[in-house]
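Handout, section B. The chain below has 353 residues.
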Amino acid sequence: MIFHKVRSISYQFRNEKDQSTRERLDEELKNILSNLKKQAIEKFQSESDLKKFLDNVIKFNNYSYNNQMLIWLQNPNAEYVASFKTFSDLGYKITKGEKGMDILVPSLFYMVKIKLENNNYEVKPYSLLTEDEKKIYKDKNNDKITFYNEKIGGFKIGTVFDISQTNMPIELIQHQLNPSLEDNRVDGIEDLFIKAIYRDGFKVKYEEKIGNGAKGYCGHKNKLIVVKKDLGNLMRLKVVVHEYAHALAHTHLENNNKEYKEHRNQYESEAESIAYVVCKYLGLDTKDYSTMYLYSWSKNKDFNEIDDSLNTIVNYSKKIIVNYSSVLKKYLENNYMLEDSLYGDISSEQIHI
């Protein structure tokens, strides 16, 4: 019933012209989504639940954080999620009687820019233009009214199904969902990550010794990631990814070391969880201590803190994977073929997130 309410409010939002009413409807939608996420987070009853959710970040990487939470709420055991059309296009059918999972599909609307006198502009939704104004907008030789940007105008309800609800064998995609990366292939992967890090404005330096027994650290002020030199290559790559997570997700700590010290467990849990997701994506041997760390931190936190951290983990895991994939794609274009001895089981399907 709650998704029917979302559909109703979204319909009202898209057709409402009064701004104060639109703001009220928007707030109502946000409250509903917040309550749904709260229900999802309440279902994290153990460390294994959190591990399963983080594993799904890789499997459902084309879904937003909010929709990943909704999928988890409705089916924590989902393995591979897609729409009826996607399964149908692949040649498979939904099992008769199966009920899909509801997700939120953003409903986008155009904002246009209208030229006024004295080089001033007015911005408003395309739907509020008069018929004469719409003709001006469509006239390619008239720049009085032009496209400005897109905005979310509520949500539509979409339906997805898990592979267990279809006649598609899970074995067909198991290789893509769970790749494996052997130890002797790590060095090349690490080089690509370093290139991605450099593109994001940070440098990487290897040192023989780091204080306090740390394996690495990220300095936001000097844009430098430092990694202990004598680590095994698997561990070294994990540290590189962990510190890369700090570099992207925690830029607000650049001039606030006190903030980091006060909330160290939160930031380390986020970075460690991001590293877990990325390494899992690469097929690296991931240890349970990553998820245990996050679970231990989250047990005594309120909904807003956990929601904020999970949002950070999902979004920056995806960002790092996209950045790495972009560098990998460029490498492949320059070298014409994938070197099996270096990249092993990373397939072309995984390059595009």
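Note. The beta strands are 81-83, 101-115, 121-125, 145-162, 203-207, 216-219, 224-228. Compare this with the example in section A.
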